[in-house]
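HUMAN: Now follow token order:
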Amino acid sequence: MALQRKKTLLIADDHPLMAEGIARLLAGEYEIIGLSSNGRQLLTDAVALKPDMIVLDISMPDLNGIEAARRLREIDPAVKLIFVTQQLDPQYLKAAFRAGASAYVVKQSVSKELILAVRQVAMGMCYVTPFLEEAVGFAPVSELRRSLPQAGELTNRQREVLQLVAEGKSAREIASALNIACKTVEFHKKALMDQTGLRTTAELTRYAIMHGITPI
């Protein structure tokens, strides 16, 4: 009888020790095919490596995990996404599932819960850290995966600009990070303000946090 192929797994976390710890924890059951250090590298690695599952953090530089998840689902709707994060606020749990997550594990519980979570996801089920599941009265996945009413209307570029604005980056820094002109940054920022009805950077930052575009 032929041996069953191990499912492949890509890990994305900007803290190398955390990424390596997760890799060691899961290496006995899954084939670890890569470690990505930020959201943008994760997209590149996912296209090149085509993993069955991805373990990713929310708080990553360049592109946060929620935004990366949205794009990953466009690139490969079949890929399974398992969030491992320090974010305890239920709004991030909901945002993660709206972005296509199959599991949400808090980092404080990784050693106890991650193997179980990945096993369940591999079998087509979902997993949520129990105390968070209780906190939100865990709604059906189909309900959690509905698009956010306003943030879902933003383009990928608008969400990128919004994340960087919320992180306190200047127009010049945003232009450099996204390889676009400063005038283009200002155009997108004005479009964001017109679309959301917000007028200050502080208001945009609150909006980004509320919709899971940038962590608290």
Observations:
- The chain has a mean pLDDT of 86.
